[in-house]
Amino acid sequence: MSTRRNFLKTTGLASAALAATPSFGFTIINKNKPTADVILGHGDYQYRLIKDWAQIGHVNVPLLNCHEMMMDSKGRLIMIGDHPKNNVLIFDKSGKLLDYWGTAYPGGHGLTVSNEGDEEFLFLADSGWYLNKLGKWIKHNGRITKTRLDGRVVFDIGHPVTIGIYKPDEDFCPTETAVGPNGDIYVADGYGLSRIIQYDANGRYIRHWGGSDNPDPNYRLVSAHGVAIDYREKGNPMVVCTSRSEQCFKYFTLDGKYVKTVKMPNMSVCRAVFDDNNLYAGVCWSQPKVGKTTWKDHTGFVTIMEGDKVISNPGGTEPIYKDGVLQKSYQLENKPIYHGHDVCIDEDKNLYICQWNANHTAPYKLERV
């Protein structure tokens, strides 16, 4: 635990905050300030909400949906979105906008930073869907593109009908990529057939698995929204696939053999993001304790795990286990986070939250306390 966080926990201010937090995950600190601090989360994973972290003007740099963000080796925060005027935005950790580029990815959705020795690359997933000026969703051809950090294209991976594993009338709408330890590329067709397609480092097809129509429940993926590589178990990296409509993560070997399922009750989770022993994920939707909501309603938050156990839900209720089984988690009534879509973690364990359908808001910062 850092010295800063130890100091905060020894003060009366932090003690009062921690005492008030566990039941609700929401605390107001120092009510004499013009704008009170909002503290989200539980236990040792609590955060100060900073909504105005990003220093951008929405007229010059407009935003639609902020889908995903990763940090490169220089500490720059690279974000992908789907506004037709800019697909990729690059920030420093103070929130200053350093650069923005790209109009060729109108369905900009997934972003992965890949370190290949002396150079880093981006893998961009264009889902094949975008919102036009009339507010209507338009479908085009989804694809995966490998670029340099400045946007120069290295190669594209297009529709898998070209290699004979999809039929001409089957949709390919990729939402995410992950890069394995040997450079293999794993593509999540999250809005198409919910398959994971594995390619080698040069984009040559190897295998695929999953699918929403898979008769084997272990291999079935329904809205395979995210894919990531879990290196937490030494010598045993695994492919972690989101089955968002089933509210779970499913783990596979690097060659697609099923390992386990981790259930996330009432949490429509996005991709898994790993840091130390933790798994972080945006929760795009949940359902209230009473009644039902639609996919357009703001019902999301963020979830944090140690190993396979949920230990904090910033923006949501405290995680509860009964007889070792995780119970349903819910969004806080004041809706501090609308739709958690991705989480980026810096070296100080602060979080940067990208949101979908969040009234054109820029990413939020959650400063760890």
A few lines on this structure:
The chain is mostly beta strands. The protein is 5% helix and 42% strand. It has a single domain, classed as Neuraminidase, CATH 2.120.10.30.
For this entry, give a set of tags.
369 residues, disordered N terminus, 31 strands, mainly beta, six-stranded antiparallel beta sheet, Neuraminidase
Characterize the overall form: globular
Overall domain count: 1
Structural class: mainly beta
The total count of strands amounts to 31
- How large is the count of helical segments? 2
**Helix percentage range:** under 10%
Average pLDDT metric? 91
Biggest sheet: strands, sense, closure?
A: 6 strands, antiparallel
**CATH hierarchy class name:** Mainly Beta
* Named CATH topology: Neuraminidase
Q: Give the distance, in angstroms, between the N- and C-terminal Cα atoms.
A: 11 Å
| Name of the CATH architecture | 6 Propeller
Percentage of residues in DSSP E strands? 35-45%
Strand order within the widest beta sheet:
1-2-3-31-30-29
Poorly predicted runs: 1-34
Radius of gyration: 20 Å
Query: Could you name the CATH homologous superfamily?
Result: TolB, C-terminal domain
Task: Summarize the topology.
Elements: H1 3-10, H2 12-20, E1 26-29, E2 37-42, E3 45-50, E4 66-71, E5 77-83, E6 86-91, E7 97-101, E8 108-115, E9 120-126, E10 129-131, E11 137-139, E12 143-148, E13 153-157, E14 176-179, E15 185-188, E16 195-199, E17 205-210, E18 227-230, E19 238-243, E20 248-252, E21 258-263, E22 268-269, E23 273-275, E24 278-285, E25 301-306, E26 309-312, E27 321-322, E28 325-326, E29 340-345, E30 351-355, E31 364-368
Antiparallel strand pairs: 1-2, 2-3, 3-31, 4-5, 5-6, 6-7, 8-9, 9-12, 10-11, 12-13, 14-15, 15-16, 16-17, 18-19, 19-20, 20-21, 22-24, 23-24, 24-25, 25-26, 27-28, 29-30, 30-31
